[in-house]
Design goal:
Number of strands of chain B: 0
Shape of chain B: elongated
Number of strands of chain A: 0
Number of domains of chain A: 1
Distance between the termini of chain A: 16 Å
Order of helices and strands of chain B: HHHHHHHHHHH
Structural class of chain A: mainly alpha
Distance between the termini of chain B: 16 Å
Largest sheet of chain A: none
Radius of gyration of chain B: 22 Å
Radius of gyration of chain A: 25 Å
Helix content of chain B: over 70%
Number of helices of chain B: 11
Oligomer: heterodimer
CATH superfamily of chain A: MetI-like
Number of helices of chain A: 11
CATH topology of chain A: MetI-like fold
Helix content of chain A: over 70%
Amino acid sequence: MSGWGPTRPGIVDGELMSTMRRLAQHGLRTLSVLAAGSLLAAILVRTAPGFGTNELDLDSRLNAESHRALHGAQGTEGGFLRFYIEWCGRVLHGDLGTSVALNEPVRQLLVERIPETAKTLVTGLTLAWTLGLGLALLSSVPGMRCLGWAAWFAASVLLCVPAAVLAIGFVLTGAPGRLAVGLIVFPKVFEFTRNLLARSAAMPHVLAARARGVSEPRVLFHHVLPVTAGQIFALAGVSVCMALAACIPVEVLCDLPGIGQLAWKAALGRDLPLLVMLTVLVTTATLAANTAAETLSRTMRGGEAR
Amino acid sequence: MKIRIIALVFLAVLALGCALAGWIAPEGYAEQLRNEPDAACSRAHLLGTDDLGRDRFARVLYGTRVSLLLAPAAALLATALAGLIGGAAGFFGGKLEACVMAATDLVLAMPWFFLLITVRALLPLNVSPAVSVSITFALLGCLGWAGAARVVCADARALCRSDLALLARAQGASGVRLLWRHILPNLKPALYAQFWISIPVFILTEANLGMLGLGVAEPLPSWGSLLRELGSCSTGITQPAILAPLVLVILTVSSFQIAVRKEEIHT
């Protein structure tokens, strides 16, 4: 026991340093992916057909100088690199541009709609994880095979139904649309977790624990779950990305005024500045969720290794 | 094994039905019977007619043809891109692999549907039905390579470090010969699996895009555009025949998934 005294603070410091280094690496990776993504988006916007055309171009009362001034104000002059640098400068100053289709500042639109999508995400992910993880845990208990089969069947059917159809089902039955996101994400969570638990349950240390007569709940919570926790955290990060993608059809068809519905309106109105900003925002959210999940996952694995 | 045979038979029957669509439903998918809108199921119209008086059975048949022909085509394109990009990255390694991994990171970080509708919006929306079909499925193919490329890259890297590659090199095999005779044939199972996995994903994505009005343009039917009818039933489903495309989508996607599971086991 006396050996723990002097070494433990050293181990903790080393762990902290390693976690900080990992976080810095993730931050750098996130920033570089975002920079590359926004550059790609700027190229797409700059080269899209119809870029820089304005109905004021048809106004014969304006002279050439006025037209030039208008294009300059819209940032449509020069190559894509100049366009990208100017766009980045505006974004860093908090000017996210103006939506062409909705004629409102993009920033205001985002501020209004992000809380709605956040509510949908939280509700959907809570339902998906409660159902998915709960049923996967229950189906891994030997006496619950029937429940396991029923859950597998439900998940398999839900995997084959388009997200938009599920959303319409919720509209027709009058159920809250936000829950549809949960049912879209649930089958993926369930299938992955169930396979993970089944694989862990066949590991030698679990078999040894069962052979020694350790009770099923103890086997599950002390021997199976700790091994799978890292991968379950990683799945949690990915499930945020799945839920965000599911938000588009759900918010459109259930008439929820979130960013999914905004993206759809922007796509129909070819509102490229708004779409690009939404894509960058959603990518940032996804990367942040994945980074958090990966850090947690590594921490769990580190703890396990010790 | 039995369930796989059933799934394959179902897919074969569906493919045959699509191939013979012109013979089974000679009236075509666009002909309007203006005095028979929203007609119920009858001998003349097995699934009734839609609100524009078009025979729903004919539209389901032709829509199945569009979705069932083009989803595998998009999957082929995505798999080819994944094989090319991932295979080259795994084989050459170094900076090329780092660049490819960064590109896949970028594509995978963007939620698939957001990326899809953003790129779809960059392309013209008011185009002919044939062009809209090509755009929709080409987009699916071009954007769906990233996940598969990572798998192929990892496999190619492992193969390059295997005893098989070491032996071939020791026997004086050139880089091209090593790639062509030893690496590519061993990548086939991974590519087949990625191809089969992509098909149901693309079918469902097209259905979602079509239901949101960003897929195949009217009057050409696809499963996505046929499912849009469900959206107009605000007071409930009065005609059960409306559900025919949904049943078909579920059966087809589950059949592909059953085939995929077996395919994965083989690899």
